[in-house]
């Protein structure tokens, strides 16, 4: 048994690591394709991009781990069945269930590790990832002087470069507009035939070294009372330099504490505390709303002519509420009641909007809380599908197992996504919506396990053809008799 268990473990570990790496790589490529425009051309250091990719890989574990377990188990048992190793194991008197014990142990350990990862490491990775991605997306482009465009990258300057060399350092036909200190007018214009640009040590300044140009400066008269004419100075130069501050182009990190209140950044303990306190707050607000509305339902007001104050009377549906009142008093009562209805309606609307917002937050945090447990159970359920399915189809490699595993994973992922969105929208029971994918796939896994244990030819097309032929043959004589 030890040799058989060791054989199964060796056959599982290698496909699992390979498939996990492939799935993580594919998901990472999808991330890069999605945010390529926000990351390229902004002058990030290589380690910043690497750090962002590392945090993104950590956030992708929730999707990559179940798919890897499903695919690797199908490949493992499919390869054992294809090479008749499962037949030899069964011939030795070892049932499939007993042969699955070491794999169940390994997948259980992986499920526990997945829960610990989602509870302790994933909130930290999400915090680092989303905060860094937020800062990277709002970062200005590092292409400071694009060709043929008036660039306002530097405050107080408008710069246009007609043409650049392929190296991006040598510039031609440069035009610089410098605004006045009050920022209203462009009182300095610099024109240059060519120039070069480079950065100083530490990327503090961008230096433009201009050649063969002219500088125009327009200034106000010294005594505006007697002389309203402005002065224009023109200065030609062979070579000059202009510095631009690059501090605004360096990535500035936002304080991570601003993101800690999001549900993805909390562990189970924090989510439990938030759910309890939020639910208690919502329940107390509901009681306040009830106490606020109750007096308006139980009583109605009758203004009297002799007093300014309002007198209240208990509502009795069997009696006429306007009994003993004149027409003018009835009109005043209706007007007063309508005014009070409008006021209480406004109060209820504001409190109702607040209640809806709090309820949506509670549902969103509940979803994140349940996802931590759902991940571990999903690993077990998908293994329960993959192991018997692999022994039934008896195909190893990356052909049919990939197709089958992708189909089942898409079913799991689509049902899970629909359930989560329904829970967040309040359209379905919270527990049912979060566990509907498990409830759907668990019977399939048990059914496949039964079929594999009984050596059922589930995917033998000849069986289905014979069944269809028997059904056709059964109804064919009746159809012939009717035609006669």
Automatic annotation (TrEMBL):
Question: Does the keyword Cell division belong to this entry?
Answer: no
Q: Indicate the principal place this protein occupies in or around the cell.
A: membrane
- Pfam families xref list: LptF_LptG
The organism's taxonomic lineage, starting at the top: Bacteria, Pseudomonadati, Bacteroidota, Sphingobacteriia, Sphingobacteriales
Which cell locations does it reside in?
Cell membrane
What are the record keywords, sorted? Cell membrane, Membrane, Transmembrane, Transmembrane helix
- Gene Ontology biological-process annotations: lipopolysaccharide transport
**The protein's name in its UniProt record:** YjgP/YjgQ family permease
TM regions (residue ranges): 12-33, 63-80, 100-122, 373-393, 399-419, 431-450
